Amino acid sequence: MASFDSIIQELIKDLQPRQKMVLVKRFSLDHKGGKKGVTLAELGEKYGVTRERIRQIEEAAFVALRKRIHSGVGKEVFDYLHSELESAGGIKRETVIREALERHFGEKIGELPLRFLLEMDGSFGFYSEDKDFHDYWYRGEKNREAAQNLIDKAGKYLAQHKEEVLHARNFPALLPALSREFTASEGVGMNYLSISKKFGTSIYGDFGLTDWPEINPKTVRDRAYLILKEAKKPLHFREIAELIKSRRFDDKKVHASTAHNELIKDERFVLVGRGIYGLREHGFTPGTAREVISKILKNEGPQHPTELVKLVLKERLFKENTILLNLQNKKLFQRLEDGRYSTHQA
Description:
By secondary structure, the protein is mainly α. The protein is built from 17 helices and ten strands.
């Protein structure tokens, strides 16, 4: 296959000079306009005509070019674009289309040249990025409606089953059932969801709503929570700060002192040792050694020292000698005849 650039140049070579100039500037087909190209208004101002006149010239150029597609110029590329949209349920994010095209043909193509090809084809509609959706291309309103229905239904399910989805990581098991309601495959279903900014994937691969801190953590506290939740064990605040940095949530620097200050203010975290934090939801309990021992004995009943140490260490990272030493406080604890310990209130 000829290169993307040579296909584009072949397509536009016989256009009227003004038509060719407008398309080259608008879609950076000479690679001089960067990623943004030149706007209709900028071209109108440069050539002393209205924005609307430039739009008319652009549209006339596309009408002329669409006749060239039927003559076979770039047929392989246009056939592939059609098959990509068709297999994806008639709708796909622009970035995903570009990545697929580059993989298939083994050549890079810029954002604007790709947009030029898609718009020139004339059978695709374009949705420009806003606060709710990414840039995407689609074939027909029916496909957009199907995607919107699935997005709405999946969003409601996730909002109602957050803990179940995150803990069991079972959303993929739900998706086929949701997709079947709209006669779509699982792949098409995930593709539909991908156009929405409502959904996202965490750095650990969990899928969910982007307003969940587990999926899109924005604060140091939320990022620390995600780190500890995945680690499933307590970590020192310095290690937590390093892991936040290495996971590259963004380019902001995280100082260890900042992490420590944020963790100590949040009830989700428990200081279980010297500078070491665990999650309350993992069973770690705040308090002194005496308080933790008292709570366990009240809840679990009398315990032999060996078993008691194991139970305390599940909740706090005390040294074994610290636990045994506190157990000797006769005002709080008593040793029973069988060697077990209990509180005086037991």
